């Protein structure tokens, strides 16, 4: 046994930290974990989980409305924000409790306070002032919303605040074109708020396949979201009736609530990384090697604080790989390629592998693209105009599938399965030899035809 208080001290009880702490404790290691907020981290407390419940909330509203075409009579439908908000918080608290229990039941000590690094082996617990030492330290503190420093920025809220809004805003202005901006625009429009989404670029979801970006632009409009492009906010002014936001092009937008969804940054500002000899990049992300080891050999980092791929399941896998490497004598580097993910617009996006633009950059003409767009049968009777878009990208003569991009109902569910096929390096012939399940949306993915060459638009 080492002379340290703990074999492992984990800073941050989010997805990556809890998984790592639990696995180490199950191996008989002496584990300490510190968390300044509720255990569970961004995903459980102020991200994926409560967000998905809001998406379901908005989807129920749409389902009620659209059920008329299926013979239902629905009169006097109302929505109560307070009920949904409070029910979500109850569930968040339940899940957070499970996270604490998982750690404690496995013998880890959970400190419910902020921790900072003092040196390479010492952690200070900020509320109690106690210091603890550890042979190995894992930084898993995640990230937090970042906003540009414009005049009046204190009047804006960020995604953390959304889940606690006292009232549902009648009008909401969302700044940004990324995951969070697109998802919350869809949620609040679905709940009945008048939403304007203002983005500094020309197409939503930077980094995604160009056709997906166009589809998402179209579906936001179909959901009644007023999307404005190529504008950045310069000032937020409070008025008697709400806020007025001024933009770079001279335009002004009046609203009841301004949500800044302009990205997230790793939470390393006051963590003591320098004192511990841990290097960070210009965004504050902890620099790590493929085994998640920082520049200080006994300190590791996983999850959003490393700003690799900022998704919960990735943090969990990085944590599990860290345990293999450090405690099982099995150096393991988590493979960050071909990770399936979803954007919970309404309907959602599912994506795995590379975009067409990236495929053409890497492989030039040695790429074949298959697409389809159709109105799912549910939407015909319901009168919904939403469509399903599917795109499969293959490479080489063998036509290995290197990218699948879906926009439409159930895309998030479908992409998880498709992710297995991409990870297994299956070919278009494998897809085609798979018999369809009828009648489903997913069956279209095994019957796709090549997009005619003259229609190919390559946009990166
Ligand atoms: P994103 O990076 O996805 O989007 C940030 C947006 O803000 C971009 O549109 C960006 O523009 C814009 N922006 C940045 N700086 C400024 C500025 N100074 N003025 C105006 N606009 C600005 O970040 P999010 O916060 O939406 O999400 C963070 C991460 O969290 C995601 O990347 C994802 O990894 C994760 N996440 C995953 C979800 C999921 O899996 N469903 C859901 C939510 C979050 P530009 O595009 O031009 O850079």
TrEMBL record:
Catalyzes the reduction of glutathione disulfide (GSSG) to reduced glutathione (GSH). It is an enzyme of class 1 (oxidoreductase). Its EC number is 1.8.1.7. It comes from Algimonas arctica. PROSITE patterns: PYRIDINE_REDOX_1. The lineage of its organism: Bacteria, Pseudomonadati, Pseudomonadota, Alphaproteobacteria, Maricaulales. This is Glutathione reductase. Binds 1 FAD per subunit. NAD(+) binds at residues 176-183, 263. GO terms for cellular component: cytosol. The active site is at 438 (proton acceptor). SUPFAM superfamilies: FAD/NAD(P)-binding domain, FAD/NAD-linked reductases, dimerisation (C-terminal) domain. Homodimer. It holds the Pfam family Pyr_redox_dim. It comes from the Bacteria. Belongs to the class-I pyridine nucleotide-disulfide oxidoreductase family. Its cofactor is FAD. GO terms for biological process: cell redox homeostasis; cellular response to oxidative stress; glutathione metabolic process. Residues 339-447 form the Pyridine nucleotide-disulphide oxidoreductase dimerisation domain.
